[in-house]
Amino acid sequence: MISKWRLFLKELFEKLWFVALLYAALAVATNLAAIFIGPLLPDGLGETLGADSVEAVLTILASSMLSVVTFSLGIMVSAFVGAAAAVTPRATALLKTDRTTQRVLATFLGSFLYSLIGIIALNAGVLTDNDRLVLFIVSIAVVAIVVIAILRWIAHLTVFGLMTDSIEKVEKAAQRALENRTDAPFMGGHGHSGPPPPNAHPITQPDIGYVRYVHMDWLQDRAEDLGCQIYLAALPGAFVHPGRVVAYVLGDKPQDPDKITRAFSIGRTRSFEQDPRFGLAVLAEIAERALSPAVNDPGTAIDILGRAVRLFASLSAPRDHDLRFPNVWVPPLTVDDMMDDIFPPIARDGASNFAVQIRLQKALLALAQIAPAQFAKLAQTHSETALARCTPNLLPHEVARLKAVADQISDSAKTPRPRPI
């Protein structure tokens, strides 16, 4: 249940309207507080300190912020369109939730609402000079926040929506998901591979879509209530439908399967949150688009290969795993599957480009050298497949250079070195 609230609050704070609503609430609270605080101030203090100017300040703020919000929204939409065309439409989901953009736009919109409510309160004639002084002080603080937001926005616009910025966001999203899965390889439950116990009862999902999030604490609570063991059959990123089993229950058959299926958040698209493979697939998609004849940008594909090495290398670090959900059994997320998400598409679409192929072989060699026991055999398989794809399309001396690197990968697979301590 806690994870459901955490996910709800996370998505709520990513909404532009919510932060703007907080500014509106600040305006209402400020005007109410001014009514109570104003009488406590010395008589004539508001008039002495120029509290009458607060209306002019709020008027300027309201008119300017409305223009700034309109202009900024136009820039944001242009960045989304550019990223969808140059990078991939899947990257726009990260641009939409970019914290700097969300906070800046929410600040602009919220300050507009704040000033609008303040002007209404002033024209209502319910505020004395001392009350206006309180409103004036808070308004100066809001102006300072707006100035800081404008400076952040100017700096952010220099990179927002560009190719490198979009790729960086995808890599960071994949890195977070990989680190979370590395810290809890079975999402806090037991590891289980292979089919479920033969007497387990299948649970299907009535909705059609992708598993965006699995609430493990919800499954653990339901398993304790039912006195059973739950075997997860659909990891985040899986496409589910009424004919797809999402979990198995070992114990008495549940009378209300909805209590189990409510642990799965289903959406029309995949999410980066718990799905490391989605981040890798999006990176591969960016590389594929860059390698298309219409774009012809092998440098981006080479950049993606370097990022892939960095992502996979983080999996080699040993970490302690906590068992937080002892009644839930989760299938593993294998390195084999994750490598299939990114290396074969680049090898296929870059089959006729030697620069991409040599970088691909060197990336696989790097992984084989970083953690031979974990990556060497898989790197050898991908190396051989990539070499077979590109051999008919390259010159003999280029193929010879690729084979030299492939031989080093094979040597690493035959004689894996122990992990350094």
Account of the protein in words:
The chain contains 16 helices and eight strands. The chain is an alpha/beta fold and 421 residues long. It has three domains: 2-161, no CATH class; 186-267, Alpha-Beta Complex (Aldehyde Oxidoreductase, domain 3); 279-319 and 333-414. The strands form two sheets. A five-stranded mixed β-sheet has the order 1-8-4-6-2. The protein is flat and about 90 Å long.
Characteristic key phrases:
Aldehyde Oxidoreductase, domain 3; 7% strand; five-stranded mixed sheet; flat; alpha/beta; three-stranded antiparallel sheet; 8 strands; 421 residues; single chain; 16 helices
Note the gap between the termini: 40 Å
Strand content: 5-15%
The radius of gyration is 28 Å
Averaged pLDDT, please?
85
Order of helices and strands: HHHHHHHHEEEHEEEHEHHEHHHH
Structural class, judged by helices and strands? alpha/beta
Write a compact overview of the structure shown.
With 421 residues, the protein is of the alpha/beta class. It has helices spanning 2-13, 16-37, 45-48, 54-86, 92-96, 99-123, 129-157, 163-183, 216-226, 258-261, 276-291, 298-313, 335-349, 354-370, 372-390, 396-414, and strands at 190-191, 201-204, 209-214, 229-232, 239-240, 245-250, 264-267, 328-330.
